Amino acid sequence: MNDASFDMLTKLIHGQYDPWEFTFDFPMETGNMLHVLYDADAVSGRAYDDLIEACAWFDPYDTGDPYTIDEKEFRAKAKVAYDEAMRVLAKKAV
To answer: How far, in Å, CA of 31 to CA of 55, rounded?
Structure first.
């Protein structure tokens, strides 16, 4: 993961990034970096892959469509990805 995508995720977790904007910006910023995440740590790669999918499923209007997720579920998926990123960073710092 590059610094820009990690900064975006951190801002989302701390309420400084609009989730709707994040759903467009994050996949574009992350782009083809999933192979790097999978090579570095398979668990983190899956967490980010899930987050990119969640970006596509996010329903900012909370329409109740069974094929979408609301903001609470979206933020929960983002938190999983953030926690994985922090775990990998801590592992690298050792």
So the answer is: 13
Taking the C-alpha atoms of residue 52 and residue 28, their distance in angstroms, rounded to an integer, is 10
Quickly list H helices, 14-70: 19-30, 34-40, 42-57
**Tokens 């069974």 correspond to what residue?**
66
Q: Where are the domains of the chain?
A: 3-93
Rounded to whole angstroms, the Cα distance separating 22 from 54 reads 11
Tell me the CATH architecture of domain 3-93: Up-down Bundle (1.20)
> How do residues 39-73 score in pLDDT, each as one tens digit?
555 556 677 788 889 999 999 999 999 999 999 99
* pTM of the shown model: 0.82
